[in-house]
Amino acid sequence: MDEAQKPAGNKAQSLSGPDQKQIDYVYENRRYVGRRETVGYVIWDMAQSYNINNYGGRFITSILQVDMTYQQIINFFSTIWDIINDIFTAAIIEKTRTRWGKFKPYLVVLMGPGTLGNCIFWLLPFFFIGSDPKSLSKAAAFFALGFLRDFEGTFRGISRGGLLATITPHPVDRTRLITQANFWSGFLGEKLPEQLMTVFIDLIDNRVWKAKDGNISGLFTRLFSGMGIATAIVSGTASFWFCFITRERVMQSIQAPTIRQSIKSITNNRPILLLTLSKIINSLSIGGAKEDYFIDVLHFASMTMVAGIPGAFMHPIGYALIPWFRKRWSTMFLYIGNYLVSTMSILPVFLVGAIGGAKNGLYKRKIPMLIAYALQEMLFMLLYGLGEVIENDIQNEAMDYCEWRNGYRTEAMTSVARGLAIKLGGILTGTINLQIKKWARYDQTTYVRGLEQSDKTKFYLFAACTVMPLIAQAASITPMFFYNLKEKERENMYAELLDRRQKAANTVTGGDLEAIERLAKEQMEIGDRRG
Known about the structure:
With 531 residues, this protein is an all-alpha fold. It has 25 helices and no strands. Helix 19 (366-406) packs across helix 24 (487-510). The protein is globular, with a radius of gyration of 25 Å.
């Protein structure tokens, strides 16, 4: 390691420092998670994307047809509720100590209600057949269901992130799990429902698949509802199985941290603060969904799938290159470089599509845009695996940093603090995005009536999913230039953590109550000793 890369004395390091044997242990290929649980984790990871949620916005706007002004109002109040809900939920989870663990109980118990709520969401159009977009009863039902789904979804969302950080105490084992999950879930078809959905939408949109009664709107409704319910049940069942069989192996502090200590663990955790700031800036991106462009302009919802075929061959190559990348560059360099290249790869697509202007531009033509998107997708997929692994590694390292520095873990409160900041930005951008869509004269009813949007609206939909978000996305990487957990400090952190966890496990297993009480006190004093 170069001298320039060595940290200039961090006061959070232990006074004596770890010996070489402890550091070597950090890089050992140790496996705490067995084969069945690894398979379950891959399936669980796949289940998180086994849905048609990318078409959720279109479902609300064009199928359920909730007026966009109502959507702005609902989004505002839903986000306020979500913020309040997050804080109380995090406090409850942070205090949880059960024989199952800290996060597993919520994932197992709430999986059923969560799946039921998802099914009801996709069934909403059948309760309001023929209703006007400005129907107050429809908007109220949509808001009430969202209120309940957010309540249980917050418990599961926070617990899902916490479980990943506690399923194994070893960084190499965790990286192995993340890499295998991302590779195999993509290979086994986590995006299959979304891909099928694009084909079905194209068949209906281009009048290949026709309704017997000629009712296109009804056919779209049955498609969205059927696919939404089917994926919700499959995803929920697969997730329940893994959450039931898995174990939390990172021991929580015996005494739950107080609210003050939880807040302190965030303010003195530089990696978390930098990640949060990066996500806040990214949440300020103004733009739209590329699905709107593919469907309303190109009438080619399958563009994502067809353009992604060349990229599918780059996907396994990208995962195979991860060890090569990791040996040569630091985590910070890989995170920044990967994000910038992946984000800016969409710019040439916009430049190609803009040739000819808004009225006669190439953005309206399938073949030129298919080629442009296919080339962009090849580069994106080559780096996709690296980006997924590095981002998960950084998030989990930041949580381990909290335990190392403070003596306790606050996965729930840390996750909520990061999420709240992002949601506050989301209130603004969500409202602005819908308002710009209205200014662009987007008609919610043309799609199900087989009509066309105006040229101005079409060009807006194209720009909104390509060039508009780039400024905020590129700026969001700036905080990560100050990421402080370099290689040497990372080695020291994990060597000390692994040793400390082993001693704590031995103390608890021994059953000496006085020793356990001393351990609890020591855990809470670590942060004070380190300032």
